[in-house]
Amino acid sequence: MIIAMEEACRTCQYNQRILERIKSELPSEETTASISDVFKVFSDNTRIRILWTLFDKELCVYDISDKLNMTQSAISHQLRTLKQARLVKARREGKNTFYSLDDEHVKRIIEQVLIHLEEE
Fold it and tell me: Residue 99's Cα: distance from chain center in Å?
């Protein structure tokens, strides 16, 4: 039995708040550009590896570069990009700067993509 698309869509279950927002308006070009910019930052393998390294801990550039077997200069360059995108934050302690994920949302984004990739 073929169900009409309209009827099938009415039976789908979605987060009602998100569904209402989708129905009410398309995001502004400024908003969609901001979303696109964040995804561009996520599109770099090194930046993903840095974010993964910072999942549950705060580290300095030296520790990140050692863990990823990269130069401190290369790590600093990528951290600057991640910081500008508000994906990581920095905390100074004396002469050292320690980096961590900006908030739990960053970790959840990566986890959700991983879950999506692992689906069959």
Answer: 16
